Amino acid sequence: MLIDSHTHIYTEEFSTDLDDVVKRASDNGVAFMILPNIDLASTEQMLACQQKYPEKIRLAWGLHPTSVNSGWEEELKKILDFHKTYPGVAIGEIGLDYYWEEKYKEEQKEAFSAQLAIAKEMSLPVIIHQRSAHSDTMECVKKAGIENLSGVFHSFSGSLDELDEILTQTNFMIGINGIVTFKNSNLKETLHLIPEDRLLLETDAPYLSPVPKRGKRNEPAYINYIAAFIADVLKETPEKIGEQTAKNARKLFKI
């Protein structure tokens, strides 16, 4: 059994063949898919996916850092209204991204801290997106306090020092996706330092397709390639990696 802990199959890229995508995921052993929110505009598509495949899909609500602007508070309030009616398994994806957007850095930090506080209040894990912002991300997480705060640093591709710092936050897991299979990725040297009970698999579909599907649209079924690659590096079986990471995801998201 596999769990794709981070996928965006509600986007336009899947509008014509979603049934086939979900079937291929099931045929390849994917039991659950977690769909993280990006902004208010994506909420209806997310709900449509979950209501069509309620046995397969779980939702996470939150405001992505690149969606943050001067009016972020009102947009977040509306997003959280969906959570009241359609409860999610996490707050996400949230965090800081200075690679794509620097104009609203202060607003990003405010929105991130606010959503960390909301997650603690609701006793929900967080799905953290960080890009070119590790130091500020960790500062916000540490200020929020580890008590009643858990989650995953999704799409991890950082340095050994960054991994070490994240692992000091004992309630957090590490999300690994297709990046690990890329020729120029240093994650192969990092994998053995991630405790097996803190590792999650994800696709981040439609983005970051793993080798040998690189250059094509990503989808949850391709999580098998990621599991197989990690298993080869760690000298384990793909089945063992799938079972352990699914167990971790079930524990974190309570599914």
TrEMBL record:
<feature type="binding site">
    <location>
        <position position="204"/>
    </location>
    <ligand>
        <name>a divalent metal cation 1</name>
    </ligand>
</feature>
<feature type="binding site">
    <location>
        <position position="8"/>
    </location>
    <ligand>
        <name>a divalent metal cation 1</name>
    </ligand>
</feature>
<dbReference type="InterPro" id="IPR015991">
    <property type="entry name" value="TatD/YcfH-like"/>
</dbReference>
<dbReference type="InterPro" id="IPR032466">
    <property type="entry name" value="Metal_Hydrolase"/>
</dbReference>
<dbReference type="Pfam" id="PF01026">
    <property type="entry name" value="TatD_DNase"/>
</dbReference>
<dbReference type="GO" id="GO:0016788">
    <property type="term" value="F:hydrolase activity, acting on ester bonds"/>
</dbReference>
<keyword id="KW-0378">Hydrolase</keyword>
<dbReference type="InterPro" id="IPR018228">
    <property type="entry name" value="DNase_TatD-rel_CS"/>
</dbReference>
<feature type="binding site">
    <location>
        <position position="129"/>
    </location>
    <ligand>
        <name>a divalent metal cation 2</name>
    </ligand>
</feature>
<comment type="similarity">
    <text>Belongs to the metallo-dependent hydrolases superfamily. TatD-type hydrolase family.</text>
</comment>
<dbReference type="GO" id="GO:0004536">
    <property type="term" value="F:DNA nuclease activity"/>
</dbReference>
<feature type="binding site">
    <location>
        <position position="93"/>
    </location>
    <ligand>
        <name>a divalent metal cation 1</name>
    </ligand>
</feature>
<keyword id="KW-0479">Metal-binding</keyword>
<feature type="binding site">
    <location>
        <position position="154"/>
    </location>
    <ligand>
        <name>a divalent metal cation 2</name>
    </ligand>
</feature>
<protein>
    <submittedName>
        <fullName>Uncharacterized deoxyribonuclease YcfH</fullName>
        <ecNumber>3.1.21.-</ecNumber>
    </submittedName>
</protein>
<dbReference type="InterPro" id="IPR001130">
    <property type="entry name" value="TatD-like"/>
</dbReference>
<dbReference type="GO" id="GO:0005829">
    <property type="term" value="C:cytosol"/>
</dbReference>
<dbReference type="GO" id="GO:0046872">
    <property type="term" value="F:metal ion binding"/>
</dbReference>
<feature type="binding site">
    <location>
        <position position="6"/>
    </location>
    <ligand>
        <name>a divalent metal cation 1</name>
    </ligand>
</feature>
